[in-house]
Amino acid sequence: xxVILSWIVIGLVVGVVTGxxxxxxNNELLITIITGIAGAFVAGFAMSRFGSGFMSGPIVEIVVxxxxxxxxxxVYLAAKPRT
Length: 83
Description:
Layout: H1 2-21, H2 29-50, H3 58-79
Helix pairs in contact: 1-2, 1-3, 2-3
């Protein structure tokens, strides 16, 4: 349960930071948080499921969830229509 909570917290923080860095408006803050959490879940689950050998451990899992959250948020912001 602690791992899932860490994925949520990491995704939330990375979603907010990535959204602000990439120029998301205040009305898109919730969406960037959701995409950050989704990316952290996907990457964290994949790492815990398929990670093995020297590529496992808490530090590596945190790095992977940060990358996944940032990637999902960046893809959302790049794909959304510009007004």
